[in-house]
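--- STAGE predict ---
source: upstream dedup step, 1 unique chain passed
mode: sequence only
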Amino acid sequence: MIGLFLMSEKGFNVVESLIANKKLNLIDFICIGTDNKVKNDFSNQIKELCAANDIVHFFRNEEKDITTFKSHYYIAISWKWMLDLPNLIVIHDSLLPKYRGFAPLVNMLINGEKKIGVSSIFASEKYDMGELIFQEDVEIQYPIKINEAISIISKLYVSVVLKLTTAIETGIPLISYKQNESEATYSLWLDDEDYFINWNLSSDKIIRKIDACGFPFTGAKCLLDNEIVIIENALLVEDVVIENRQPGKVIFIEDSLPVIVCGEGLIKISDAFYEDTKKSIFPLTKFKLRFK
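--- STAGE serialize ---
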């Protein structure tokens, strides 16, 4: 029997796949997490899916004694909280040992990684340092939005969990191996401040940040006349020679849209709105603007 701790689209897709592949008999229980920092955390969809298939389920904030269940293994998907359980398997959004830690997929996209993937590991005392079991990866093309990347990586989650559950179901030992510490990198957690754009970066990295911070997240931010603006879409524009370059300033208006100076290169903002009112920033009322 397997106990699942999960949330997000990835967790939903995994449960859906386990049902479709007739592995309901393996599921001991499902503990559902919630995340109010994303526009859809899939917690309600997971709850409805469990209820429709008579799966024992409950939310993380409900008081449940896990020791009363019969789980031999536990699997954590998109889980953000500490779990002190034996035979705990964690599924992580990167090809470990690269991008240990938090928000690895967002950071991989911002960095322009050509390949994204997932790793299944046995939980360890220090996060994401446990022994590797299965890994899956896929090459991606840019530009790519975060919701598209999540959908792609969700399929890898399904593949890895099906491998794990098939091995557990048939009694095949889960062979694991140590990570190569010389290749380890770390990915930092993100807060509201991290969603603000640093205009000193290159235009291509700023575009990747905008795409990586969009739905289901709150979006890449900047200040315009002391109001917070969410930028949803932007395009690369061919750079020009600029004397005394000052990133964040509007240099051109093209098709009624502002072209912004970056540390290297230019971008044209095509879709943006004020955070408070949700109203579009267009049409702009003046030319001499600085995005901060």
